């Protein structure tokens, strides 16, 4: 029987809210089948502040409305100082954290403050699990090596294709040579393109995607291809072991596509998709994100709505493709649960 | 640095011949990147007899024509007695085996003698890695539990979809609930159906598949759906944890399909495929292998030649599909290499 793990959650938006519910739901199963037990000892967000209780926060309250009553934590352990980095350290210490689930907002340009959060967690001696792509793009090698030095895990399965085990798949493919990949990795643009093909204007399609809860209020990162580019960079950094800067990825979003062009392309049997690509060239990798016409009968043309797709080209398997159809509500949070089980298995 | 592993190969047909070449090819990489070193100390087959040398057999000879000269092994360590089970034990002992790669022919009805080989390897204290589906269908729980008792691994990634990490993928999906799956898992019938759609008679299509090296001389197991049924049973036993007997799988092969019927179905946009299916029903699983008409635009309709496909339905990912396109020469053997790395990582 492994010891009980103290779990801490930084950021309390959709991902971590869903995560605490899923962890609560699978608690008996993870204990009985994997010998892993846990309690929630820390939660922090802009609106909640820094809440910690090493004896365990009120799980039911956390799983409820999402905003745990502050009186559920011991007031003397609630940390409230100004410097964020110091905050995180004090909070992790107060919560006796064994695992940090990092789910703050993505900063494409710097990866901060998530990079600092993860570094602080590893320094504290906790495993660091993130749904944030920024740290991989901006600090993958440093955080990977630092985690190894500290004997802890830095895991991030939920950053690409929700929680589908893409990174873990390659852990199961030793001594394989990944030559390149292509795929559809951004849901918002995929939904917008489908809607525009049926005749909606760009703004209407975006509003529909927002109404469906797929696109964020500020969907710029999706529409201009940043999200897809960051995912591409993360895959290149981790799976091809080539650090690539975002600026090196040729990036074009979907703003230039008119409903007319989309309808014509679809009618001609070559619909547009926002395609991510990477290919080894010499010691480096050439990567791009751009709208491409794909053959209507090809697998990429079939990826609709929130589904996603990736095709890996390796020396052993010339084509190994993974399709995720209509991910459920728990898909992203699930990737973090699976990461936790991986970390706990050590 | 892990100790060096003594590797033994039982059966020396295509799979193990390719495996020794792949292991020789990746030797430096596995040593440098995974800290795993090894030598070949045993090889046995009907034509070669039982060859063992704990100091290492001649690797170049093994990788060559496929038939290592007997003089490469110490004659005093070459075992030659009558009872096979005793043979295997003596041979494993003489070779100081740490890992057995079992690649003898499939016996659909009993799983023998592979089951005995694997049991002998685990008893001896070696990891047992097989490309043979029989032991999973006939003795999965027994061998799994026996391996766990002995602190060794019983691994079989190469039995379904060549070496694509299907079973390992689910090791990466803790606390997920697999509701069912469907897919195309037999290459021979897939090639034959495609050829018949173009107008070839069944016998001509079979001959073509044999000439391509896809179908065996006796292709009955493929054509009558046995191979697909055994794979289905293996997936059900391991991934759904429901032992299912082959007789419980509704099985229909492709003998009843005429070129005319295949051409008509294809013309109508609903081509025939030999589809494997399994679905949880109560505490059990309902499974079948049968020719089905599939929509021409669906993923299964696109699976041609030696490609294969599987679609998993889980509570977290409503649809998670894996496509293997045109597996390379090394795909099956690679699965055994990956299994070896998994076993060595313990």
- What fraction of residues of chain A sit in β-strands? 15-25%
Largest sheet strand order of chain A: 3-2-1-4-5-6
N-end to C-end Cα span of chain A: 12 Å
Q: Using DSSP, what is the number of strands of chain A?
A: 12
Radius of gyration of chain A: 21 Å
Uncertain regions spanning at least 5 consecutive residues of chain A: 66-83
Portion in helices of chain A? 25-40%
Shape label of chain A: globular
Determine the oligomeric state from the structure. Answer: homodimer
- State the secondary-structure class of chain A: alpha/beta
Please, what is the average pLDDT of chain A? 91
Provide the succession of SSEs of chain A.
EHHEEHHEHEHEHEHHHHEHEEEEH
Please tally the helical runs of chain A, counting DSSP H or I stretches of 4 or more residues: 13
Most strands sheet of chain A: 6 strands, mixed
Largest protein-protein interface = A-B, 42 and 42 residues
Question: What does this molecule look like?
Answer:
- The structure is a homodimer of 346-residue chains.
- By secondary structure, chain A is an alpha/beta fold.
- Chain A contains 13 helices and twelve strands.
- In chain A, the strands form two sheets. Chain A has a six-stranded mixed sheet, with helices on both faces. Chain A has a six-stranded mixed sheet with strand order 8-10-9-7-11-12.
- In chain A, helix 1 (14-25) crosses helix 13 (331-345) and helix 5 (114-124) packs parallel to helix 6.
- Chain A is globular, with a radius of gyration of 21 Å.
- The model of chain A is unreliable at 66-83 (pLDDT under 50).
- The A-B interface holds A 26, 29-30, 33-34, 162-165, 168-169, 171-176, 297, 299, 302, 307, 315-328, 330-331, 334, 337-338, 341-342 and B 26, 29-30, 33-34, 162-165, 168-169, 171-176, 297, 299, 302, 307, 315-328, 330-331, 334, 337-338, 341-342.
- Strand 12 (319-325) of chain A pairs antiparallel with strand 12 (319-325) of chain B.
């Amino acid at each position: 029987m492994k010891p009980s793990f103290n779990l801490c959650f930084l950021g309390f938006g959709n991902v971590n809210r869903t995560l605490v519910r899923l962890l609560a739901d699978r608690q008996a199963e993870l204990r009985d089948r994997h010998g892993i037990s846990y309690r929630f000892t820390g939660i922090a967000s802009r609106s909640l502040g820094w809440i910690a209780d090493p004896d365990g926060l009120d799980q039911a309250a956390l799983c409820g409305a999402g905003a745990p009553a502050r009186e559920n934590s011991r007031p003397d352990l609630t940390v409230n100082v100004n410097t964020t980095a110091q905050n995180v350290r004090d909070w992790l210490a107060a919560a006796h954290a064994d695992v940090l689930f990092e789910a703050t907002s993505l900063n494409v340009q710097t990866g901060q403050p998530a990079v600092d959060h993860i570094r602080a967690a590893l320094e504290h001696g906790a495993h660091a699990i993130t749904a944030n792509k920024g740290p991989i793009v901006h600090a993958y090698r440093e955080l990977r090596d630092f985690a190894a030095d500290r004997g802890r895990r830095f895991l991030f399965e939920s950053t690409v294709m929700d929680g589908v085990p893409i990174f873990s798949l390659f852990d199961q493919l030793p001594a394989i040579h990944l030559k390149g990949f292509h795929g559809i990795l951004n849901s918002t643009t995929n939904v917008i393109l489908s809607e525009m093909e049926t005749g909606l204007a760009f703004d209407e399609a975006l509003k529909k995607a927002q109404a469906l809860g797929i696109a964020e209020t500020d969907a710029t990162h999706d529409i201009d291809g940043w999200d897809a580019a960051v995912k591409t960079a993360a895959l290149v950094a981790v799976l091809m072991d080539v650090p690539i800067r975002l600026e090196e990825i040729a990036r074009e979003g979907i703003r230039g596509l008119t409903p007319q062009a989309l309808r014509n392309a679809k009618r001609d049997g070559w619909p547009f998709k926002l395609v991510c690509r990477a290919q080894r060239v010499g010691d480096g990798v050439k990567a791009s994100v751009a709208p491409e016409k794909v053959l209507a009968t090809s697998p990429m043309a079939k990826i609709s709505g929130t589904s996603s797709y990736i095709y890996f080209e390796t020396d052993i398997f010339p084509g190994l493709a993974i399709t995720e159809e209509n991910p459920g509500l728990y898909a992203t949070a699930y990737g973090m649960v699976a990461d936790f089980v991986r970390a706990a298995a050590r």
